[in-house]
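User: Study the chain.
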Amino acid sequence: MFCQRYFTKVNSSFCKLVQVLRTEYTVDFRSVQTSVSVWNGNTTDPERINLFFDNEVQDLLKKLTRKDLNFVFRSRKMGQKLEPPEYKFMTTEQLEKKYKEIEKDADIILQMPPVVPLRKEIDVTLSNDPALMGYQSDKLVFTDISFGKTERNRMIVVRDEKGNLRKATWEERNRLNQIYFPRPGREVRVPSMFKEEFLKPILDRGDYEFILDRACIQFEPDDPMYQRITRTTYDHIDINQAYNVLRSTRHFGPLVYYLVNENKIDDLLLENLQSDRLEDACWLVSLYYIINPLAKRKQCVTGDECSFVKEFIEDYSKKKSVLKLALKAYSDVKRSQELQASQ
């Protein structure tokens, strides 16, 4: 155990503190740990729990991400010096092996941030010692820095000015963990860029990937601040139909999942049809049927994709007229191309 501030007097209260830490805290802390389950807005439908981690859902999200190797390995302005390119002569076998390695590296880069529920606030008082009230004008923080502890199960307690011994809040835990076990890129205090007045100009510039990458470094997925920032970013993307900015990045899957979960896929579906992505439109509709159990689930048949999308538009779309026109325009163009090819 490590104490940030040192008691000048050793009394019975300190002995009581040690006793409480050895007994109550190690047992009660298990209630703080959060289970990994899917965030799904205000719904409490048990059928929608853990759907983000469902194999079929993950497969569809990865397909919709569209792994473009040129985009994945593009040079980004990250404030680091770029390494000069290296040229090699390879045999066909060596080249194929290298391509497989690149594919694996791309899969790692495109690994999606998890979508989990909001964590519960920590409000647990372990002991109340009125004799210590006013003894110190500052809080005393006790942190277990033993080897092998994680950020979740590390024991951190606070003795406040009123003499109460309580478990540290999430904000206090984050700061203490970052002080003793710093993560590269994460700051002890929340960066100013995440404040609303500074976040809006960055969103207006379209730096969505930068915001989401920075949020992943600074916050845990179940942090209310993280989920507020991601939802704000996703909504801004949806309003401006800037989906292509995140396509082929690790954030496109969570973006699509959020839109499907909030029943906001009409604009994304429209973008798919207008950009000749009928296959993506079918995957998007299939994902909608999986995540929304109230919708009558249907299967997309190869060669009948337009009918599959058309049925969704007629039954569940909020922008039927616009989507029907886009689907008709897509069908007309394809029909015209087929006629020209047959001549």
User: Anything to note?
Assistant: Residues 143 and 156 are 5 Å apart (CA to CA).
